[in-house]
Amino acid sequence: VNTASLETAEKIYLYANYYGSLMRGREAGRLLLDRQQEGLRKAAEAGLHIKVNMVLMDGINTAEVCILAKLLSA
């Protein structure tokens, strides 16, 4: 999980291929954020212990490190 922001997701994820459908820009970012959130929610509901990694990209998502840590620790 590298961002919680759609604006940042657009910068990080240039495209997504979802079941053969190529998505770009905001659409790709929204898809990836939604799928990540759904996967984390389902894993938590199943009682799994979850470890989340984040790649820090200087100038792109550096301001979101603390935000993500708080969101994901809940």
Shape by Cα distribution: flat
**Through-space gap between termini:** 15 Å
Largest sheet, if any? 2 strands, antiparallel
What share of residues is helical?
A: 40-55%
How many beta-strand runs? 2
- SSE run: HEEHH
Adjacency order of strands in the biggest sheet: 1-2
The total count of helices amounts to 3
Write the layout of secondary structure elements.
Layout: H1 6-12, E1 15-18, E2 21-24, H2 25-45, H3 65-73
Antiparallel strand pairs: 1-2
Provide a quick synopsis of the model.
It is built from three helices and two strands; from the N terminus they run αββαα. The protein has helices at 6-12, 25-45, 65-73; strands at 15-18, 21-24.
Architecture overview:
This protein is mainly alpha-helical. It is built from 3 helices and 2 strands. The chain has helices at residues 6-12, 25-45, 65-73; strands at 15-18, 21-24. A two-stranded antiparallel sheet has the order 1-2. α1 (6-12) packs across α2. The chain is flat. It starts with 5 loop residues before the first helix and ends with a helix. The model has no long low-confidence stretch (mean pLDDT 93).
Note the main attributes of this structure.
single chain; 3 helices; mainly alpha; flat; two-stranded antiparallel ribbon; 74 residues
